[in-house]
Amino acid sequence: MKVIICGAGQVGWQIARHLSGERNDVTVVDNNADLVRRATDSLDVQGIAGFASYPDVLEKAGARDADMIIAATHSDEVNMVTCQVAHSVFEVPRKIARLRSKSYLTAIYSDLYRRDHMPIDVVISPEMEVAEAALQRLSAPAAFDTEKFLDGEASLMGLTIDDDCPIINTPLRQLTDLFSTLRSIVVGIRREGTLFAPEAGDQLFAGDACYIMVHNEDVRRALEIFGKTHRKQERVVIIGGGNVGLTVAKELEARADRIRAKVIERNRVCAERAAEALERTIVLHGDGLDVALLQEANIERADAVLCVTDDDKVNMLAAVRAKSEGCPMAIALINDPTLEPLMEPLGIDAYINPRSVTVSSILRHFRHGRVRAVYSIGDAEAEVIEAEVLSTSPMAGQKMRDIDFPEGVIVGAVRKGSKIVRPTGAMVIEEGDQVVIFTLAKDVPEVERLLQVSIDFF
């Protein structure tokens, strides 16, 4: 597939790395020649220096025969105009735009993005998606990573295995026998920095980070089995009152199960804006690293602190400071993936990677087959793909044990009609079933082949 990525910043570079690694024809466009050079030097991509919205620049990038354009520059307006030019001048079939301004994202104006108005097929909002990821982390405090699938009825949860975990040194096949009614399955294990898909004879050891797929009704029981407690969040302190922090605070206010939130924001203008937008949330103006201010926010009584400023190092330090003041759980927003190995030594319980969130949302529209959702794990090491099985799929009509899955692939959940079931070897995968598949990055092409459909569905 031929793809043009407009914007060679953090998000654009990450998307380019992901897609070029799968042998797609990728061209990166940015008006900053240094960023273009960085992309072409480190990735197998072509680069064009220039403004992405200029027709002559898109022509040089090969827009006339491009299959998709992803507009991910820092300017909403440039991204929108780029999609318009790609549609009107070059008839690019698929157009994705990253939009950050809330005014453009308001639901009552969604009619703006029709093909006869502003022809954008998919709108990606990093701030809103990161805010949703933050809310999911808060809803599952025992997990370091979490994502919902099958219309929110099943969850992928990342759990650290502690020394007191009751199922340490137990082969996974025995877990299936011991907890036969539990709709949960271990789909991935990270051990000594390496992520792999486990086999039935593999065991869990202290220090492992494992990923489980679990039905929402069985979450509490699954956490108990893995030695975790399900804590209800009632008080949250949010450090950073920008777009992400404000969105999270608004959502917490709107929830039926009342969660009391306090926001700390260093910038006076942002703090005043947040105070005006929020009804029941207390907004404090000051530095989130200030011990006196944290004490004023009653950090020692909070159930969690969410650090979502625009500075990774501030988020990390604020999380550590809050933990030292007695807060039991700290979540930090981290853009730089090289900082992620520091999370555990620093005692930070969970982190959110905005690039991973954005890449996941874009991959959903890139994968072949009737793909409903994609979640990228780690530094693009693996994906969890939710898809509908169509009649032309090689999986349709086959027993699970007879499907030729690669070693790095595990089916974590299956929905048949309205019922979500745990996969077994004897289960027959039928047309119309929805499957959630964990796959290592190297096996994604083979999973796409298994989900392949007729050309009508592309």
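[next item in queue]
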Amino acid sequence: MAEDRNILSIKELNTLAREVLEGMFPIGVWVRAELRNVKLHSSGHVYLSLADEEASVDAVMWRNVSQALGFKPEDGMKVEAFGSPTLYDKTGRYQFSVRRLIPIGEGARAVAFRQLKLRLAEEGLFSPERKRRLPRFPFTIGVVTSPTGAAIRDIINVVRRRAPFVTVIVRPSAVQGDSAAREIIAGIADLNRLDEVELIIIGRGGGSEEDLWCFNDEALARAIFSSKKPIISAVGHEIDFTISDFVADLRAPTPSAAAEIAVPDVRELRASIENMLNSSRVRCNMLFDGMRSRLDSDMRRAAWFAPLRRIHDLEQRLDVIMEKAGFLERGLIERLSGRLYRHAERLSGLSVKNTLKRGFAIVYRNGSAIESAIELATNDAIEIELKDGRRQAIVE
């Protein structure tokens, strides 16, 4: 009788059981459960339990499924899971093979966004202290976006209107779809290698959550963080926020707004410069008027025996005023300097030495100059200074 028995090995038994179990659900089945005991293995597989109030089942999510998930499963998360019940041949353990996982009440994208935002914030990628200051007057900006989209047209139009002297370098890139994040990262890297580029704008026009999703890519966020050039993120419309917006040095609500932030308005600059020039002229005129008044007063008080030293002092003060005044009133300063030198020449003609050269003499007694003849008596010893020396004399 023994030879008529159909004897199976344990491996064969488990294989048959698995085939029977999987055959009962050839397409798969959806279940609603809570995640428990979630373990992310180094292989990329995820081991977890699906449970409700009355029962639980071990489950596995293979690496190809977990990598495409878009979010990190967490204990306590309410989900709907699609897959098939199966049996692990080696141990005979019953488990559920998950092929899709959708959070209940909060979409998978929303969960992924929330998790990534929290993690990057904890790492400091959003910190205001590390954000770079934008150049005030850039001459070349780089733009990573679709070369055919409305965003690049809006940016170029705004730049041409506000600052025609600014060069815009467009680095074409997809801005939606599976390859978009990689292309934007490559575009940022390319523009960082161009020395002339001072500022980078990345972005696109509005769209659905799926259209904008590439700007929530973790690798792109780290590329923005690592960029040597400051980056403005201009994704979607005013109500749209992406991870790129939080990491970028500045977030603009639209591509047009990004261009307005990036470049100055020439008309506003011209008006500001004219106002500064007018203010400078007023201050210079006030300064010159004060200088002219002080100069006239100093000229009247100048000592008759040392005019040149006083003139040199005034010339030095005038040099200081000229440096402060700058190029705005240089002609006025030159006229004032010429007037000063003419006064110097007239005062120089009144000096003691020039007076002696004209035939005059100075009489001294005991070292003091004599101003009147009545100060002298007969037989007084005196000293007479002429243009070429002094002589002793006796009064008769």
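[queue empty]
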